[in-house]
């Protein structure tokens, strides 16, 4: 029986993870569930799963959750913890083997790193943590013997297309390049002049995937693909120049690996995160996920094209940050988080997101992030710079 901690259990990835686990009650137990908001949903999950721990943001929410669990439950109580300390405790707890890292944004960095340092099997959805701490993250995985399995559908696809046991050295493995597929988001075909006027709800109405609001906006700007480029470089030990983005509106081919002999390997499937989640939960064995088999004849045609630079300036910004290295990716991610939150709050227009990120990077005084504290300091500095642009 595998004991699983789900960081961000109430989010889109968290709910899908519990959905897959529920199909295999003889294989997986929820050891700890965490949430920041949606305490009612967390209470419901705790009544169903009866985890050893639940973690919320603060003491007040902890009291509310404990009360709400007690109201409907039988038998064993869940211990409720709170704050970052609570997250670290459950992420590193010796009694859990697997940690699903599915908190959104930089808030996931410290608990995800705690799971890495405790040598867990880390299922990584929280791409922002890897973007921010790349080198420290991968060094921690190696030093502490963690097993890192990508949940992002593209990276999970690439992982499946790489030679088994691949541990870096793309040249030795005969890899020419990696192709990240991108749906193009909800604004792939609208007139460029109309982009300024789009609303948060329009930006969050993704054509193929149902996701949290932050990543949905990132998909609309294609910052998501930019973050994924950085993610791919760290996960698979490739240079930014070896990663290309291809627009594929059907979201059926989840990404591809091109080899020197002319082979192009792809992983295909219906766009449903339960496939990569099931793959990582039980890797190297396969698991029934609840996802319907792909009907190729029903799909009929698959389309591919190049991304337009003018439509997706965030992609170029992310590539530039990847090439510049140091703590440029930290600044990129932090400015983007601030700008996306402001857009979702109705404070700025859609096109301001890329402008704020560009201005933050333009004025950035870079440094080498040697430890987690330095990453956090760069993150705070970039957030400050981006916030000042909103004022
Ligand atoms: P979501 O907004 O639906 O859920 C986020 C979860 O994190 C929630 O449980 C929330 O309570 C928790 N959370 C939010 N802020 C927090 C904070 N400050 N401290 C602690 N917990 C906090 O997001 P999501 O769509 O599930 O995405 C989660 C992560 O997975 C993101 O990094 C995203 O990029 C990545 N991802 C998501 C998908 C997808 O299909 N949703 C696909 C690929 C990658
Ligand atoms: Mg993705």
Keywords:
11 strands; seven-stranded parallel sheet; 16 helices; globular; 391 residues; alpha/beta; binds magnesium ion; binds nicotinamide-adenine-dinucleotide; single chain
Blueprint (SSEs and pairs):
Blueprint (H helix, E strand, L loop, with lengths): L1 E6 L4 H11 L5 E7 L4 H11 L3 E4 L2 H14 L6 E4 H9 L6 E4 L7 H9 L3 E4 L2 H18 L2 E4 L2 H9 L13 E8 L17 H5 L8 H9 L1 H14 L6 E5 L5 E7 L4 E5 L5 H9 L13 H4 L13 H12 L3 H17 L5 H13 L9 H19 L1
Parallel strand pairs: 1-2, 1-5, 2-3, 3-4, 5-6, 6-7, 8-9
Antiparallel strand pairs: 8-10, 10-11
Helix pairs in contact: 2-3, 4-5, 5-6, 6-10, 6-14, 9-14, 10-13, 13-15, 14-15, 14-16, 15-16
The chain binds nicotinamide-adenine-dinucleotide (NAD) and magnesium ion.
The radius of gyration over CA amounts to 20 Å
Strand content: 5-15%
Largest β-sheet summary: 7 strands, parallel
SSE series: EHEHEHEHEHEHEHEHHHEEEHHHHHH
Report the total helices.
Answer: 16
Low-confidence stretches: none
User: Based on DSSP secondary structure assignment, what is the total number of beta strands?
Assistant: 11
Strand arrangement within the widest β-sheet reads: 4-3-2-1-5-6-7
Describe this structure in words.
The chain is of the alpha/beta class and 391 residues long. The protein has 16 helices and eleven strands. The chain has helices at 12-22, 39-49, 59-72, 83-91, 109-117, 127-144, 153-161, 200-204, 213-221, 223-236, 274-282, 296-299, 313-324, 328-344, 350-362, 372-390; strands at residues 2-7, 28-34, 53-56, 79-82, 98-101, 121-124, 147-150, 175-182, 243-247, 253-259, 264-268. The chain has a seven-stranded parallel β-sheet, sandwiched between helices. Strands 9-8-10-11 form a four-stranded mixed β-sheet, with helices on one face. A hairpin with a 4-residue loop joins strand 10 and strand 11 (264-268). The longest helix has 19 residues, at 372-390. The protein starts with a strand and ends with a helix. The relative contact order is 0.11. The structure holds nicotinamide-adenine-dinucleotide (NAD) and magnesium ion (MG). The site of nicotinamide-adenine-dinucleotide (NAD) has 25 residues, from helix 1, helix 6 and helix 9.
């Amino acid at each position: 029986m595998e004991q699983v901690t789900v960081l961000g259990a109430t989010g889109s990835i968290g709910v899908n993870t519990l959905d897959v686990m529920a199909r295999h009650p003889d294989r997986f137990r929820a050891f700890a569930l965490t949430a920041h908001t949606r305490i009612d949903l967390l209470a419901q999950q705790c009544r169903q799963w009866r985890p050893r721990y639940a973690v919320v943001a603060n003491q007040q929410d902890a009291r509310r959750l404990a009360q709400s669990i007690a109201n409907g439950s039988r038998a064993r109580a869940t211990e409720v913890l709170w704050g970052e300390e609570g997250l670290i405790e459950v992420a590193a707890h010796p009694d859990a083997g697997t940690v699903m890292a599915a908190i959104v944004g930089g808030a996931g960095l410290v608990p995800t790193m705690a799971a890495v340092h405790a040598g867990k099997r880390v299922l990584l959805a929280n791409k922002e943590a890897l973007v921010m701490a790349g080198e420290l993250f991968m060094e921690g995985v190696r030093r502490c013997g963690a097993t890192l399995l990508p949940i992002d559908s593209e990276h999970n696809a690439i992982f499946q297309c790489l030679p088994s046991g691949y541990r870096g050295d793309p040249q030795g493995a005969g890899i020419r390049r990696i192709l990240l597929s991108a749906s193009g988001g909800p604004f792939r075909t609208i007139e460029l002049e109309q982009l300024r006027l789009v609303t948060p709800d329009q930006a969050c109405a993704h054509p193929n995937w149902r996701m949290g609001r932050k990543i949905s906006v990132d998909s609309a700007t294609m910052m998501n693909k930019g973050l994924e480029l950085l993610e791919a470089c760290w996960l698979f030990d490739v240079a930014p120049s070896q990663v290309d983005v291809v627009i594929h509106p059907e979201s059926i081919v989840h990404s591809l690996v091109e080899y020197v002999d002319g082979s192009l390997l792809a992983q295909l499937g219906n766009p449903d995160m339960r496939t990569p989640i099931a793959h990582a939960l039980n890797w190297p064995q396969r698991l029934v996920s609840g996802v319907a088999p792909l009907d190729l004849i029903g799909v009929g045609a698959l389309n591919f094209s190049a991304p337009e630079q003018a439509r997706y300036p965030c992609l170029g910004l992310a590539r530039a940050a990847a090439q510049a290295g140091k703590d440029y990716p930290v600044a990129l991610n932090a400015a983007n988080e601030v700008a996306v939150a402001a857009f979702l709050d109705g404070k700025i227009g859609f096109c301001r997101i890329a402008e704020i990120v560009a201005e933050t990077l333009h004025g950035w005084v870079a440094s080498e992030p040697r430890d987690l504290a330095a990453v956090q300091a760069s993150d705070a500095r970039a957030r400050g710079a981006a916030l000042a642009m909103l004022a």
